[in-house]
Amino acid sequence: MGEFEGRVEGHRDGHGFVVPDAGEPTIFLAPQEMRSVLHKDRVRVRILRYDRKGRPEGRVLDILDRRRAPIIGRLLHEGGQWLVAPEDSRYGQDILIPKNAIASAAVGQVVSVELTEPPSLHSQPVGRVAEVLGEIDDSGMEIEIAVRKYEVPHQFSPETLAQAAALPDKVRAVDRRHRVDLTDVPLVTIDGEDARDFDDAVYCEPFKRGRGKTAFEGWRLLVAIADVSHYVKPGEALDEDAYERATSVYFPRRVIPMLPEKLSNGLCSLNPEVERLSMVCDMLVAADGSIEAFQFYPAVIRSHARLTYTEVAAALANTRGPEAQRRADLVPHLLHLHEVYRALLKQRARRGAVDFDTPETQIVCDDNGRIEKIVPRVRNDAHRLIEEAMLAANVCAAEFIGGAEHPCLYRVHEGPTPEKRIALQATLRALGIGVSLSDDPTPMEIQAISQAVAERPDAAQIHTLLLRSMQQAIYTVHNSGHFGLAYGAYTHFTSPIRRYPDLLVHRVIKAILAGRRYHLVANSKTRTPELRRGGKPAKAAKPMSQEMALWEAAGGHCSANERRADEASRDVEAWLKCRFMREHLGEEFAGTVSTVAGFGLFVTLDTLFVEGLVHITELGGEYYRFDEARGELRGERTGIRYAVGARVRVQVSRVDLDGRKIDFRMVREGETERLLARGAKAPASAKAGEALAAVKESDRLTKAATRLVKGQVGRDIKRSRKPQAKRPSPKPRSRR
Question: What is the pTM (predicted TM-score) of this model?
């Protein structure tokens, strides 16, 4: 029925999928087929059959390439054998370790394993311990695991470190040549309290050109961006390591930077009261928020202050307050920045750019790296002010490069696919939102829906649905515009310290200013990116030249590494949240349904801002049917419905640290009274909580024991059907 080559994606339940290179639908692999392969192997498969829904199932014909990256896991000693249980359950098989290959590791420690023998139909994989990371409870261990699990480069090469060390500590006279001197302009940086690298500085003043009523009135807005390209040159070790990383990766309490600290926090960071090299986007913004003119030029600047969002917002809100008094000399310039921000905001509304009010949270950790609390991240006018200034500079960069017809990496964001549009329309209709979408939705339509539901209690959940209906933003040489921001052309110019595409944009702008072209050169780390699951090859109107193909490969590489960084960050946050929620087992919380699926409800807790699953089996003693069109679960007997935005009360029933999963059970109205009624007599109020907790714990343990027994019986039945392995397997164990 056809043969395909692709990458294996394992599943924790034992089966897997092959994602074909050419973008065809994923091919299912039964558990038996997964015995000879591992997650991320490249294989050739043949389609054997199609299921009732037309999904293909395949058989592995050949293993083209074994994934050579180390596997992270816990070292165990069971049944007289040493083995490592992979931390990533998608690998599906434990790795046997010979006694002489455990290095200095002890039982229970987290280790990195290199395979010495691949798996086969009749034997488990064999490996050796290459690195001992430490104990699972060590501070920061979750980050050490994540950077290796997702193969995030976290060590600079000796050549890169040597090159960084040889760089000067400050701007030299030779560096100032052919640059505009802006050291007397009161540019300032505005960032979060915990920021350490400062990419951008801003300044604004009123502007008037001409005389009389026809005079142009507006503002001159300067956005100065760190000139990383002056120090990081193509083909050098610094550049190769930066390209390999493509982005900085942010974890709670730790950053894996794209550039060595001497650059990211020193020479390229726009620290206050020191000279720094920069690329400046100098704009004239009209009263209606339109950009009348702009120019780019290299400059040397001196930031006059390192401001935070909090103090800027406070100064703008009260120009006579203590924050404003401390920065009295800068307050007039901050007021001008606020004025230009309000003008740019009007232009944003005219374009119909989408502005979602999706809740964001911030994890606050203690000294040991454990979650102390999770708090909502509040965006104020200072955040929005900087955001609009950066958007304006990015649009100018895209227009400047596009006008020169020079290749570049655009930041492309496309709207809903036809399938997602239909699904979104059905969900909105089910929620009683009578706003229709055209066959080719515009940002204005999405924004109209966003505004129409702003006063609803489930507004945040609906905004999330709207956001998920759109496609993922990517870097590509083909400019298709930015749907969410309603721009015809958009690129990234403002963060070259932490994003490689911005560094490329700076090089292109410099080349255009010098009257030449920047040629992207292939290096040892340039590769054609892997397609994500469900992805499709980029569409090109005509065959690309070799140089354009290099640009497209660079865009795919940067996009893939951006997703990798996001996944690693989310994995660490999920681990921390699971660790945090283990302290709240058995406790009850109010929450809101954030997502509805056929297997249950995802609920976000009001006070802790943590999401967990209420499995459909925990919804009560009746059958619930999933209505995909309405996006709800409905009980057939009682007619009870659960949809996005529903208010519920749940109990924390289970936390799976390995699987990064939190399970809730639904607590129905009156259940507390029924639990108390099970006792002979209601206890005194002082002991009521303890008695109720004991009853709940007993009930929970009974259910857990039942599930455990059923699960063990099921595993025993499955195990009895498997062929006998040549190498003896360890005894069944429970993962911790």
Answer: 0.84
